[in-house]
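Entry:
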Amino acid sequence: MSIAEGHYAPGGSEAGFLTRERIVAKPGFNRWLVPPAALAIHLCIGMSYGLSVFWLPLSRALGIDKAVACPQMSTFDALFTTTCDWRVTDLLVTFTIGIVFLGLSAAVFGGWLERAGPRKAGVVAAFCWGGGFLLGAVGVYLHQLWIIWIGMGVIGGIGLGLGYISPVSTLVKWFPDRRGMATGMAIMGFGGGALIGSPLANLLMNNFKSSTNVGVWQTLTVMGLIYIGFMLIGAFGYRVPPEGWVPEGFQAAAGKKRLVTEGNVHLVHAHSTPQFWLIWGILCLNVSAGIGVLAMASPMLQEIFAGKLIGTPDVGFSALDATQKTAVATIAAGFVGLLSLFNIGGRFFWASLSDKIGRKVTYFCFFGLGILLYACAPTFAHWGSKALFVAAFCIILSMYGGGFATVPAYLADVFGTKFVGAIHGRLLTAWSTAGVVGPLVVGYIRDAQIAAGVDRALVYDRTMYILASFLIAGFICNALVRPVSQKWLMEEAAAEAAAGLPSPVKTVTTGSFGIGYGGLTGASAIAWLAAGIPIAWGIWKALDSAVKIFQ
């Protein structure tokens, strides 16, 4: 077999440094170098979950010790004021804008990503995400909220979308034998980004703050530059396998019983199938339930257990004094950190397990076990059992993360791998929807219960039952997923032409081409250490905070 087999034609001078043709792997390439590259990008964009670390300092950016409040200020006024401190609710909009643009950019640019390749998409993502932080720093320095919204919300959100989907199609092509594990490794990084970014942001803000400055714009500048550099390293680490490459001995038909198709569905036709919308509903409902809890985890633990967290079990939340509330808030921060750990671990565990038991069965586990845990959570709270309550939500958050990590492999099984990155991009509009629906449902019901005079320890009971009903609907959607009809599958030549890919120079369609093999080499060890050391540091910081729950 010649070296040229399976390679794209070089394309002469038209093959630019960032093009897909330039990153086709050559003989001897080790496929285990690709997951650390994907992790490098996801660990950076995962800080979107940790942006809340900036909101309180920014809410007193002018007053430093105490916010300069303007009670009559409208949201429009907040966008342009230079004399009033921003409200936390105005700052929270930045996160919402980012999640919305994540879904929109992933949907709009998914097809371009498949044509341009993951390196070019990763480079654009790096400058959008890191550049969004830099523009946000300008907004903080000038005290202009609209600049923060555009920088960290719109531009950063586009970086989020491109950075999130760029490794998906690459990894499922490199690991057709372990699709769930491969995407789980990368998307695990998204869950871990806040574990690293949040304590790093705190360290930087404490270093930069002074009697006249809260240290946020300097922190955003440093982190933006770090993210650009780290993401560029990841982007330039991407390689794609030659057309037709599969691991030696891999048999695609062996997975047929798990809905694995042997063909490909065109991006244009994917959303015309019922399978796309069923999986869209599965993701939206699973994420709506999980993200609603994640958004309210800290106040939920504080209000339900209150004095029980600090050894005064008869004292409700409203009766706590300022010192006690500070102690309770510290413990609740440990709860959030623990949930983040299970969010990360669940991404790898459940996605890897799905390779063994199938994606559909895995989602049945998410929904069936989730229904039980959400329904039992109020009872655990009424019993006053911190251990059972915390354990229930740790498992729930592991399945929330697992849902994100498993869905790309689910899509690859159902629609094939040719357009999976673009199809996944369109599916992420479900996340945008859930990012609005979940927190709104939890927050609105909580506020309505408090307004009605319900004790704070009981205000989340009805919410848990409603979230359980979300999962019942998701269970039904999952049960209805069937293999795609044969009429949607494309001929391979048509699939290549539709994807806008150059014609491959090859004489066979299978075989290793001498590519993809190699275990822990020096290069792969360095790559994994570069990604693993920051994760280990973030996990240590989270565990150090989490132990306070049970002290």
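Residues 1-15, 253-257, 501-513 have pLDDT under 50 and may be disordered.
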